[in-house]
Structure formats: C-alpha cells, structure tokens
C-alpha cells in the first residue's frame, strides 16, 4: 500500500463557494485522485480552511500555520511515499502572509525543508514531494472576499513562477493548478465542484509518476 498526504487549505478541504460549506465527499480532489489511483494507493486529505504556508493567524481557534502542524502530520501518517503541498492562497492576505507571492515562496521553502529533514522512524525515508501552484484568483463582488483577496488578483498570477523556483531548488515535482481549473467568481478564490473534480483528475498522473 502506497500512502499520499495531501496537505493544503480550503481548496483541499473542499470549500464550496456557493454555500460556504463543504463539497460532497466524492467531489473533493484528494478523494477523486485516490479513487483513480486505485486500491493500492491511499490518499489522505489534510486540508484546513485558511491554512498558510508558515504564517500565524490569531483570529481563529485552529492552528493555521502550516509549518507548525506539518511535523505532527508527518509523524502521524508515516511512512509516506508522496507529499502533495498546495498552499499559498492565504499567504496573500495582508494580515497573515503579507499579501505577496514572495512571502508564499519563502513559506513553501520552509515546508519543503521540514519534510525533507524530518527525523522519520528508522527505516523510513522522506517522501517525494509534489508542489501544486494554486489557481489564479478572479474578481468577485462578494464583499468579504473582495476585501480579503481583491488586492491580490494580479499577484496570484505569479504562483506558477514562485512554485517552479522552489521545486527546482529542492528537487521536487511541480504542477500548476491554473492549467486545469479556474476559481469561482462567487468569491474569487475557491473552486466549484466541477473544477475541484477536474483538479483531482489532473493530479493523478503527476502523483503516479512519483509513486513509480
């Protein structure tokens, strides 16, 4: 049995921009990818709304700093064959990551360092890593999300180049979600069910390539 850990934010959790609730279980991208990878591959979805790469958010009860929680998840789910990281969206909030892809890139580097250097149980190796650049933001008239992310619509266009740079420096695989899905204008940052499913299907081959 191969094990894949999908580490992300609300896009991995399955936030539905229409209802503000969660997509149907079988529409969430880790479940879609896991079903298509087959019975000998287990994909664990570890998504949390608002999660950042490495920045604190003191406005909520849950720990949203990815760098703080990742070591616990690596220990919990080991041995891991592949770690998929799709984070960065919430780093573009001005009150957490600073509002720029530059900070997101720095946080992503920290996550990769944690995963590659973690003291795994004797006999276990560090997982291969697939970095997924988040989809581009789009304009929205939803007032709260417009305030949170409206300033960063153009900035989000730089996710691909930033994630590619990290992948090249640390020897990771890379995939650009913007190639296969588009965010919903209902809030400008999340994916509807169709696009969430599309992302899961598109990630099957990149994950399988690392498992092979």
TrEMBL record:
| Tagged with keyword Hydrolase | yes
Alphabetized, the UniProt keywords read: Hydrolase
Query: What are the residue boundaries of the SGNH hydrolase-type esterase domain, all occurrences included?
Result: 6-193
Q: Name one GO molecular function term.
A: hydrolase activity, acting on ester bonds
Q: Which Gene3D superfamilies match?
A: SGNH hydrolase (3.40.50.1110)
InterPro entries per the UniProt record, alphabetical: SGNH_hydro, SGNH_hydro_sf
Q: Which domain of life is it from?
A: Bacteria
> Per its record, how is this protein called by name?
SGNH/GDSL hydrolase family protein
- Source organism: Jiella flava
The organism's taxonomy opens as:
Bacteria, Pseudomonadati, Pseudomonadota, Alphaproteobacteria, Hyphomicrobiales
């Amino acid at each position: 049995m191969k094990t894949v850990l999908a580490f992300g934010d609300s896009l991995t959790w399955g936030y539905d921009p229409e209802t503000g609730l969660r997509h149907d279980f079988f529409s969430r991208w880790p479940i879609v990818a896991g079903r298509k990878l087959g019975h000998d591959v287990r994909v664990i979805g570890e998504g949390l709304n608002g999660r950042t790469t490495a920045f604190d958010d003191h406005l909520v009860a849950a720990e949203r700093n990815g760098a703080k929680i990742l070591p616990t998840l690596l220990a919990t789910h080991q041995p891991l064959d592949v770690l998929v990281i799709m984070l960065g969206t919430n780093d573009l909030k001005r009150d957490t990551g600073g509002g720029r892809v530059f900070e997101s890139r720095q946080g992503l580097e920290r996550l990769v360092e944690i995963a590659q250097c973690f003291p795994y149980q004797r006999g276990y190796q560090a997982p291969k890593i697939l970095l997924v650049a988040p989809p581009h933001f789009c304009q929205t008239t939803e007032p709260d999300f417009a305030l949170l992310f409206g300033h960063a619509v153009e900035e989000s266009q730089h996710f691909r180049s930033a994630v590619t740079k990290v992948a090249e420096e640390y020897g990771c695989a890379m995939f650009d979600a913007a190639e296969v899905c588009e965010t919903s204008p209902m809030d400008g940052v999340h994916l509807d069910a169709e696009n969430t499913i599309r992302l899961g299907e598109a990630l099957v081959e990149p994950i399988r390539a690392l498992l092979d």
